[in-house]
Structures are given as structure tokens and as C-alpha cells.
Design a protein that fits this description.
Blueprint: E1 3-7, H1 16-31, E2 35-38, H2 44-55, E3 60-65, H3 66-70, E4 80-84, H4 87-97, E5 101-103, H5 108-122, E6 130-133, H6 140-151, H7 157-160, E7 163-166, H8 169-177
Parallel strand pairs: 1-2, 1-5, 2-3, 3-4, 5-6, 6-7
Helix pairs in contact: 1-2
């Protein structure tokens, strides 16, 4: 993988494990020479992961809508900042640039971005891997819900396996690099 899109909070969250996870992920991406594609902000976990990549000599591509540049949340030290018109363009460009996706802890925006590209994979529109960095057990409830949804027949088992979750970032990256996408599409029984 040459580039990974990271979705994460524009806040740091309530627990120090979340900021530590963002720092660890950014450091690992730089060490592995994997470029970061992210939302272009300087705030919250977004800023922490970008700063960690930059501090360790890695490359960062920020993709930010015009309205967020105006609100002055843009990271001004990025070597590659792409300003787009809206969130739809942001998500499309991030997905196009990335070879895989990782979600750190976050809120509505993080979930929405992650699940949109995940649904695209389920539909067979791309075959890129997905990881949840389960820092401090943040995604435990979501993972249980995905298992429930699979048991109830709304997600096929092979599509549930698209989401790899680990609390160890190095293990998560290794799993993503070894990822083999399912061959079955959503509607085939």
C-alpha cells in the first residue's frame, strides 16, 4: 500500500489513549513510507496523526472543503493540500487517492466517511482494505453491532470480514497488507 486514508475525530476525545493511537498510527505510516491521506485539519486526532507523519519524515495529503479552510481549521504545514468544493468531493478524492482505509476514534463524520467507502466495497466498486484502530476498545460496541447485523442476515459473513479491527496498530497494518477481497458480490446467494 502506498497511501492510506485515515478517518478520525476533529476532537481528541475524552481519553488519552485516543491521542496516543493517532500518534502511533502517524509514526508507523511514516516509518513504513505509507502516505497519509486525511481531512486536512489541524485540530483533534486529525492534527495529531498528520503532525506525527510529518515529524517522522512522511508525506501527507490533506483534502479539505473550502468552508473548512475559511473556518481556519486547515493544517497550514501540509506539503500537499487539496481544497475541494464540498464534503462529497472530499470523500470521493480521498477514496480515489487511498489504497486502504483506517478509522481512528471519532464521531459522526468519521463513521459516515468510513461506512460510505465500506459500502462501496460491498457493492464491488473497489477492493481496498478497511481497518478500525480499536484504541482503548473504542469500537467494541460497533463491532458487536456489526456481528449482530450479520447474524440477522443484513450483512454477509464475507462482507463482515471486510472490517478488520485491532487495538495494535502494527498488527492492523499487517492484516490490511495481507487483505484479499471477497469474490462474492452483495446480491449473489
Amino acid at each position: 500500500m502506498k497511501r492510506i486514508a485515515v478517518y478520525c475525530g476533529s476532537n481528541q476525545g475524552a481519553r488519552p489513549e485516543y491521542a496516543a493511537a493517532a500518534q502511533a498510527l502517524g509514526t508507523l505510516l511514516a516509518r513504513e513510507k505509507i502516505e497519509l491521506v486525511y481531512g486536512g485539519g489541524m485540530v483533534g486526532l486529525m492534527g495529531i496523526v498528520a503532525d506525527a507523519v510529518l515529524k517522522h519524515g512522511g508525506h501527507v495529503i490533506g483534502v479539505i472543503p473550502e468552508k473548512l479552510v475559511i473556518k481556519e481549521v486547515v493544517h497550514e504545514k501540509l506539503p500537499d493540500l487539496r481544497v475541494v468544493k464540498n464534503m462529497h468531493e472530499r470523500k470521493a478524492l480521498m477514496a480515489e487517492l487511498a489504497d486502504g482505509f483506517i478509522a481512528l476514534p471519532g464521531g459522526y463524520g468519521t463513521f459516515e466517511e468510513f461506512f460510505e467507502v465500506l459500502a462501496w466495497s460491498q457493492l464491488g466498486w473497489h477492493q481496498k482494505p478497511f481497518g478500525l484502530f480499536n484504541a482503548g476498545g473504542f469500537y467494541r460496541g460497533l463491532l458487536e453491532f456489526l456481528d449482530h447485523t450479520t447474524r440477522e442476515g443484513f450483512i454477509r459473513a464475507q462482507h463482515r470480514e471486510l472490517v478488520m479491527a485491532e487495538s495494535d496498530v502494527e498488527k492492523l497494518l499487517r492484516r490490511m497488507q495481507a487483505h484479499r477481497p471477497p469474490t462474492e458480490v452483495k446480491w449473489v446467494k
